[in-house]
Amino acid sequence: GRPDDALCAVRAARGRQLRALDRRGRLENLSPEARARFEAALGGYRRARATLDAEVAEDWGRTVVELEAHRARRAAAEQTLRARLDEAFAALAEAEAPFVCLPPAPDERLLVWFESDRGVIGFIAGGGPTVAVRLRAVAADAPPEAQGAALLDPLGDALAERLPGARRLRLLPAGGLAPLDLHALPWRGQPLIAHRPVVYGLDLPARTPTQGKTAVVIGDPTENLQGARAEAEATTKALTGGGWRVEALLGKRADAVAVRRAIAGAALLHYAGHGEAEVGDPWAARLPLAGGTALTLGDVLTEGAVPRLAVLAGCQTGLTSAEGTSGGMSFAPAFLLAGSAAVIGVTRAVTDDAAAAFSAAFYGDRSPPEADMEAAFARAALALRETHPYAWRSFRLFVR
What we know:
Elements: H1 3-14, H2 16-19, H3 23-27, H4 32-57, H5 64-92, E1 108-116, E2 119-125, E3 131-135, H6 144-151, H7 156-162, E4 168-173, E5 186-187, E6 190-191, H8 192-195, E7 198-201, E8 214-219, H9 226-241, E9 245-250, H10 256-263, E10 268-272, E11 286-288, E12 294-296, H11 297-301, E13 309-312, H12 331-338, E14 342-346, H13 352-363, H14 373-387, E15 395-399
Parallel strand pairs: 1-4, 4-7, 7-15, 8-9, 8-10, 10-13, 13-14
Antiparallel strand pairs: 1-2, 2-3, 5-6, 11-12, 14-15
Helix pairs in contact: 4-5, 9-13, 13-14
């Protein structure tokens, strides 16, 4: 009946959970009392984080027995961090910025998939009237060909008509469809991303990102991934050659204190190292750093400033879940919620040679052409497909 209204309702419902963590959007609408509670909880989080960092920094001088004794204290400190984070965002929950259902940009096409009790509905918007098509459900473990036949082929004619004039496709999968590698599904003989660059959107409001050409490159902070160190060194060289001012934090230099300080003033972050995530407990996600420290989702969400582009070439930094409506929480949405304009994340575990190959293709011999970042990502993903036919589909470009 009214596909535009239905599409806006789907988009509003899809992003409701993540918008609850949109600190900047909600702060503007908080009462003075709620804002004071938020600031107090945020201060408590940062003090607890500083205490934990100080504890970890002293580990090098402790005996095995002393380390065991400190383990319980550290676990308690981590629980305190979680509690302070919960307090801060509970205060934010008292205000909500209204969702504005903006139409797609003139040079993008919006593809939305929504699951309901009555099946799957696919939408295409931009380049013409909004189209809604009822689709058949498909299993998450079905072959890519079956997924493409179910989710893309019925939209095929409408999509083909709208490709001329489109610079990119912005995908908004909801619920159980969020983990699917939609950009890699076959459509008319090629992966979808081979037709146009593909990004995954969160439908967050635009923010003014960090400006300038300062970058921080973090490489092999746990000193057990030689491929990650080589990746970081090559990335540093490419960025420097492109006119960026780069701070390289390699190996033991990349502890949590140094990393948080560096990313707060950088316009670009490249992380080459391990990533840890749990589907059942997304808030346990961490980027392991030097000296037994780590960067957590809470650290990112409470940062005052984050890079406009974060390239997180570690396992599961963009992990998506079928739980909820928008794909769940991981480092990719956390950076976007904190203010980044775009994040490259990885949805699965990948080898360090696959991550290094992707980064080499993305940066090439120069820094990424930000004016055409989506195209640079698409070229890198398709290049990786030739050498890593499974791992390539795990890399995604997320945008606000």
